[in-house]
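Case 594 in the screening queue. Each case pairs one protein sequence with one candidate compound; here the compound is magnesium ion. For every case the pipeline is the same: read the inputs, emit a complex structure as tokens, and attach any notable structural observations.

Predict complex for case 594.
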Amino acid sequence: MVSTGDVIQLLPDHVANQIAAGEVVQRPASVVKELIENAVDAGATEIDLIVKDAGRTLVQVVDNGLGMSVTDLRLAFERHATSKIRTTEDIFHIQTKGFRGEALASIAAVAQVDAVSRKEEEELGNRLVIEGGTVRDQIPAATPRGTSISVKNLFFNVPARRNFLKSNQVELRHIQEEFLRVAMAHEQINFRFYHNDSEVYILKSGNLRQRIVQIFGRKMDAQLVPIAEETDVVKISGFVGKPESAKKQRGEQYFFVNQRFIKSNYLHKAIIDAFENLLPNQYVPSYFLNLEIDPTKIDINIHPTKTEIKFEDEYSIYAVLRSAVKHALGQFNIMPSLDFDQNPDWAFIPSKPQNKTIKTPEIRVDRSYNPFETNPTQKEIRPVQDFYQSFSEFEIENKHPEALLSQEEFEIGEFQVLQWMNKYLITQHKGELLIIDQNRAHQTVLFQNLSRSARENALSQRLLFPIEIPSNESEISMLKTIEMDLVNFGFDVEFVKDRILVNALPTDVDSEEIPGIFSDFLHDLEWHDKVDFKVEISKIIAKNSAIKKGEILLPEQARHLAQQLLQLDEPNFSPYGKPVFVQIPENEITKKLN
Ligand code: ADP
Ligand code: MG
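Case 594 output:
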């Protein structure tokens, strides 16, 4: 291309705002979040959220907060216009939700906005109408104290983004989640949420426990264990759910830092760690925890819509949180076997067998315990040599003594398979070394078999006693939409008022996996649009029923799995698109040996 002179231009404001809007306004739920947060920042004690068509046609937030003067109302919709900070220094002392001053400008760039506001001391309020970033009207208006902002026809001028929105059900889920995150952090505020003229939540001001119960239902009340801890770095308050209320699916996990919802895998681990041995594998406890931290010791300034934050003293917070939760669980007599005044390490030193010398253990084997055992605290780790020494006394209780020998190479039929690190299968195939991920391999085998058998009407096993899954109305109505698919897979389900009864299962599904499988069905139905749910059902069953990482396989099991995998037409990728194995040709190895 031939250059013909200067080509750089400044973007007009409305274009710049539309681009910025791409960051801030991803879907109706983003508008909900920004408007409610502004209402909280304005000191409102009453906040109403009114939504139509999952936010496509209307998101309106009405508050009784400070209100805005006529100039402020106009300035509020300019980019980088904020009343919340003045200098960069202020960013380090943020007490409000907002501070970037971009939300309203971004929203107004991609919607039709009607804003009305009045300050307490003014008799008459003002109204401002903006469309696609252009002011259409500004007039005085009679209105109660506070602010009402209506955002209509979101993305009316950006069809590509409008088409990108998911089904109403999915968008509404996101709206609900944003609403709850703010409502839970501000239990002193009265919140009301209406969708298409019906009430979704009416939350009266109260304490955190009352708010949680109002949101998640009466039965939650008995499940809450209070947490309270204060140190120099952090003050922690809130609740964790008792172990028996834990679920296989993430859901009711809420961290708030200075009343702002955040996500933190690191702090999540602290809680899981505190529940050690109290929960079966993969079960997640619910928690609702407020952390108060000196704002200068955190950095929330990463990205306008990101919920991650950085802590200066992450490690201490982890430690305090873990011990606070552990302590609370202990106090509530949930961990009767542990005495916290003792050295915690002491309890785990294996008792020395009499008349036997114990050699230094070389390999430690985790006998993969059954997560559905009634007493998961009995999970045990034993040194291998110790195990051999006491083989005879131990044999009776150990269900798979042979499994511990699986590190040996073995040979059955035409090919050898070796299990390595309890998670890989090593074998050779057409002159190449194959390292197979056992979990993904089994998922792939199950998935492809299930997809086939569902087409041919699967075999089903009837249960003597049906499995009961407690459910609410909306869960039942969601599952009803895939009832025929479930039948084709070999399920027989019955819907009772507050329960789902599973009377029959596909033959290759273990009844113990049913709660996990159904919880995954519901999660997917809630959060994703599915044209064809059959594929999803196969994926979910495969994921839940597959051999896990860390599971020790009998030699025949390992060989059978590798063989099944290698006989598939498409063995390369798991149903979730992950590679199943690594192939190393011999010449690569020869090269390395040079
Ligand atoms: P930020 O919240 O980051 O300051 P916004 O674009 O969300 O940026 O809002 C801009 C300004 O408009 C706020 O700083 C505040 O002064 C004013 N404002 C917005 N919403 C309200 C409201 N509901 N009540 C009173 N003032 C508001
Ligand atoms: Mg804001």
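Case 594 observations:
- Residues 215-331 form a domain with the Ribosomal Protein S5; domain 2 fold (CATH 3.30.230.10).
- The two ends are 50 Å apart (CA to CA).
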